[in-house]
Design goal:
Length: 339
């Protein structure tokens, strides 16, 4: 198969390296607005590059991977779907809710598979918990705790285009909550604060946030996020049920030190970035996309799925500003699918 990849920055180069080693990918073609950089990355991997994105999209692709800047995602998805090319796109689908909804509707009309890169769906721990919930192993679920804590904040220039902490960071938690529990969010109440660099406030963002979600089966969910976790990159989920509790991220790399005397667990080493933490999941999701591109499996995370996570992020952002709970029924969008 011939796979095209648009965007050869950090995550793009990382995905290109993975794709170049996958069975079934016979021809990998890279492109970037900086054509010289695309050529350099391609040369290092022993693959081809295209001079422009238009040339890439017109090169008879079997699949298309979008790792370009966020602002380009929506137009590239639209261009690929209109050409009938199965597409993988890093989150977010678009910068705003309206455009995300448009693309979910386009996906539904076209029948062209689009796979959005919420890599936690391919993490072994999260999949284990999903199976335990589905099979009833831990009984009925009453409480979920989810956290995403970056070791250090992004560059100030990133913030104005990020969409804010809930849409950029916690959206991963919102997606995996749906994936693991099989339920939708009904109501949210969110707060945020800034105790770090002034550029968060200047960008209209926060560096730390918390939200309480109520799911449609009355499960209670606590979600927290921060850009400042000096102990390391820390992503966790705890699912509490009537028969037991399972946790994800509570392994030897857990970025925490016990205050109890004589406890030397966890021994480390700790993770310092999301790419390190989720390396196996990133590989697995691209393997899954190759199956989508060859037509042997449906998309494991559609634009419609991404829309639901975005709607929850939108509700949290509105709640943080208003200081009041927000009902998902009041957020524009259609629940086109639930997974």
């Amino acid at each position: 198969m011939r796979i095209g990849l648009a965007g050869t920055g950090r995550i793009g180069a990382f995905h290109a390296k993975t794709l170049s080693s996958l069975d079934g990918v016979d021809d990998l073609v890279l492109a970037d607005l900086n054509a010289d950089h695309a050529a350099e990355v391609a040369h290092g991997l022993g693959v081809r590059s295209a001079a422009t994105l238009d040339e890439l999209l017109g090169s008879d692709l079997d699949g298309f991977v979008i790792t370009a800047g966020t602002a380009a995602h929506a137009d590239l998805i639209e261009a690929a779907v209109e050409r009938g090319i199965p597409t993988f796109c890093e989150k977010p689908v678009a910068l705003d809710l309206g455009r995300t909804l448009e693309l979910a509707q386009l996906e539904a009309r076209s029948g062209v598979p689009v796979h959005i890169g919420f890599q936690r769906r391919f993490d072994a721990g999260y999949r284990r918990v999903k199976d335990a919930v589905t099979d009833g192993e831990i009984g009925f679920v009453h409480t979920v705790r989810a956290a995403t804590m970056d070791q250090a904040p992004p560059h100030a220039a990133y913030l104005p285009t990020s969409g804010g902490l809930f849409r950029d960071c916690s959206v991963h938690d919102f997606d995996i909550i749906r994936f693991v529990t099989g339920h939708e969010v009904r109501t949210v109440f969110a707060v945020g604060a800034n105790k770090g660099e002034k550029f968060f406030t200047e960008a209209g963002d926060v560096d730390s946030a918390a939200a309480t979600l109520v799911l449609d089966d009355d499960t209670l969910v606590a979600v927290t996020a921060t850009r400042y976790n000096g102990a390391g990159h820390d992503v966790r989920m705890e699912v509490h049920g009537s028969k037991g509790t399972l946790g994800v991220g509570h392994d030897t790399s857990l970025a925490i030190t016990s205050a109890e005397e004589g406890i030397d667990w966890p021994p480390g080493p700790r993770h310092w970035s999301f790419m390190e933490r989720f390396l196996p999941a990133y590989v697995a999701e691209l393997e899954a996309f190759v199956d989508v591109a060859r037509g042997s499996s449906p998309s494991p995370c559609t634009v419609a799925d991404a829309l639901e996570a975005f709607r929850t992020a939108e509700a949290c952002a509105r709640s943080m500003v208003s200081g009041a709970p927000v009902h998902l029924a009041d957020i524009p969008g259609l629940r086109l699918v639930a997974t």
